[in-house]
Each structure stands twice: as C-alpha cells, then as structure tokens.
Amino acid sequence: MPLDRWPKLPVIGFLLIITAVYLAILMPAYWWVPVVAFVALALVLRGWQAFPFVALGLLIIAFLVTGQFAGWHLFGLNSHFWCEAFYTIAVVTMGLRFVRLYWGKDRYMVTRTFFNIGAQLLAGSIVPYLLPFEWGGGPPDAQGKGVFLMYFWPLEHGALIIGRQEGLTLVVKLFLTYNIVLGLIGMPILVYYRGRGPYCSWFCGCGCLAETLGDPFRRLAPHGRTARKHEWVIYPLVVASIAITTWWLVLPAPSKLLLAANSWYVLVVKFVFAGLIGTGLYSLMGPRVWCRYFCPWAGLFGLLAKHGRYAIRTRGELCIGCGMCNTYCEMGIDIRGAAMEGRPVKTTTCVACGMCIQKCPRRVLSFAVE
Predict the structure, then answer these.
(1) Hey, what domains does the chain have and what are their CATH numbers?
(2) By three-state DSSP, how is residue 106 classified?
C-alpha cells in the first residue's frame, strides 16, 4: 500500500495513545529518553505530518523495548518469544503482500521474498526454538539461543565468544562451527563474487524485515551528498565489535571492565541502533538506516564488496536520466549519476535488492560479476 493511503489520524492517533500507556505501565521512566528523542526527531524532520508515522514507530519500539527488557509471560511463553513471533508475522504477512505486487512481473523479487519468508520462519523462528530444547540447551528462549543462525560476526559479536560465555555444550559447538564455516569462510567468498546481496537482502533477519515490512517506506531513504557523507559512522562500530570480541578471546577470564563494555555494546548497538533507530525510523528515513549507518557486518564486508567482482552494470547510451533508480534505492546510492556516465555501480552500501533494476523503464541496469 502506498504511503499516501495509510490510515489517517483518527486510527493512528488511537494507536499512539495505546502505545504510550503500554510503555508507561511496563517500562521504567528512563526508557522514555530514546522514545522522546524519536518523537522529537520525527517532528524536526517531517513536522506534524509525521504524526501517523510517529505512532507506527512507537508501536514498533514498544514491542522491542518490552520484548527485550520487560520479562513478562503470556500463555507460559516469555516476552522474547512473543517479540520474535510478531517479528516473524510482520515478515510473512508483508512478504506475501510484496509477492502479490510483483507476481508475474519480476521473478528475482518474488524469489527473494519467498526466501526471506522461509529464512525467517526456519532460521529465525522454528529451528532456534527446537535445537536447544531437543539437545539440552534449556527451554525455548529467543535470548542467546539460535540467534546466531541469521546473524554472523561481527554483527553478532557473541557468535565467536559464546563458548566463553556459556561453556562448550553440544549446541554451542554447533553454533561455533556454523558461524566459522559460513560466517568467516563462506560469506567472504560469497560477498567477493556477489556483493552484500545474498546476506543483506536474502538471509539476514534485519534485511528480511527491511525488504518486507519496510517496502512501503523504501522511497524515504536519505539521498544526496550529506546523507552519504555520514556513512563513515559505521566504521567505529566495526572497530568496537572486533575489539570486544578480541578482548573476550584473549583474556583468561572476563574483567569487570570487559563485562561493562559488552553490556554497553549490547545496549547501544543492538538495542538503540538496531532496534529503536533501525526499526523505529522505518516510517521516517526508510528501512535501511541500520544497514547503512550502523551495522558492523555491513561496514566490514561492504569494503570487500566494493573491491570484489560484483557490480550493477549500466548502459549509459540508454539512460534518460529519469531518476527512478535513485528514488527507489533504499541505500541512497547515486545510481543515476553512474548510469548516465556508463560506469558500473560499485559501492560499500549496495545490498542488491534489485529495485533499481526493476523500476528502470529502459532496462539500463543489470546485475553483473566482472
């Protein structure tokens, strides 16, 4: 559904009130700081027209906050389970909507979206709750069990240090093997030849949500030199993830300083940047704010992708400069500029979503392995 057809103020305003009450009852007062900051940012960026989208963002934030920290139970299942359940429902329902829009029009889009749905259902929901339970890892719990199936190091810095944190149980050994073989060996090879797309747009849980729930907000991504100039902020987070991982592996026992640094990393990077900002700002800055500015995996492997074999091939002689590619690029890449000059698009940020190719009226663009 286009943004201009989303429900207007009466319905969304009611959701905003319910969300505010929900947060006020369940959360301590200091958790309102990022919420107030979110509302202020929304009003600064889009004025009072942002009101419906503020409500949507707050509703998402409410589930993220309570799912991560409230610790409530419903029908015998904890808040982490329900947070993951709502996440999966969002991917599946909005994914089916996306498939309906592009069925018979773009096979790549449809195939990718079905893969998003399958990855979230299996790797993001079903398998993480079955494996630990069946193999002695404790009752099903989304926190710390199975999360590494969709998130590789350095995005999930705990992928390589879980053995130091929980002991080398059978499940932990399997997680370590999985992350080393796929995350440290398979992914670099895949990224070199195919760019960030196979992970960021097909398998990563953040990408699955961005390509399904985030699709109606795709055109809201920041564009221009100023937006691209701030992409450097991703690299300090890459360094932080590498430093904390190395710190855990080198020390014979974790120090208080390390535990404090790890806690702050989880709070700031995973919760604030990935959760509150990355998901809460869908309706204001598009679905890829986290992937573009904050994700450690994207920062590290984006450099490899830029110097790898993958590119978007352009045919400058056919380009009419309409700008549809730039309009629908969720990463704010200046594709039109490259296309008009006949240059291939090779950047650290491209996630190979394929939307620029699909929207181009002259078929100027195509995926290529150079």
Answers:
(1) 1-70 (no CATH), 307-369 (3.30.70.20)
(2) coil
The better pLDDT of the pair 55, 169 is held by: 169
The token pair that represents 220 in the structure block = 């809201």
The candidate with the shortest Cα–Cα distance to 366, out of 335, 337, 341, is 335
| Selection from 256, 230, 259, 209 nearest residue 332 by Cα | 230
What SS3 state is found at 51? helix
- What is the pTM (predicted TM-score) of this model? 0.81
Buried b (16+ CB within 10 A) or exposed e, 41-53: bbeeebeeebbbb
Q: What is the pLDDT of residues 69-101, one digit of tens each?
A: 556 666 766 666 777 788 888 899 999 999 999
Helix (H) or strand (E) holding 366: strand 365-369
Reading phi first (left if > 0) and then psi (alpha if -120 to 50, else beta), residue 195 is in left
DSSP state of 170: H
CA angle 207, 208, 209 (to 5 degrees): 90
Higher pLDDT, 180 or 31: 180
170-179 contacts: CB < 8 A, separation 24 or more?
A: 170/135, 170/136, 171/131, 171/132, 171/135, 171/136, 171/137, 171/145, 174/131, 175/148, 178/148, 178/149, 179/148, 179/152, 179/153
Q: Residue 63 is which amino acid?
A: F
